[in-house]
Design a protein that fits this description.
This protein has 58 residues and is α+β, with helices and mostly antiparallel strands.
Length: 58
């Protein structure tokens, strides 16, 4: 199976998207299924400083 090459623009878009991890396990006593989702989103500090400044002015 041949994988298509991604354009530079598409690669940049994918790098900006959050990383989503999911894990499914059973509890130690086997009575529950634990579904854990971790979303990792990386933003520059200046972005958050601007968000906080805008909230403070509202």
């Amino acid at each position: 199976m041949v994988m298509p090459m991604l354009s530079e623009k598409r690669e940049e878009q994918l790098q900006k998207m959050p990383l989503i991890e999911t894990r499914v396990t059973k509890s130690q006593d086997n009575t529950f299924v634990i579904h854990k989702t971790i979303i990792t989103d990386i933003k520059p500090v200046k972005y958050w400083e601007k968000v906080i400044a805008e909230e403070a002015t509202e």
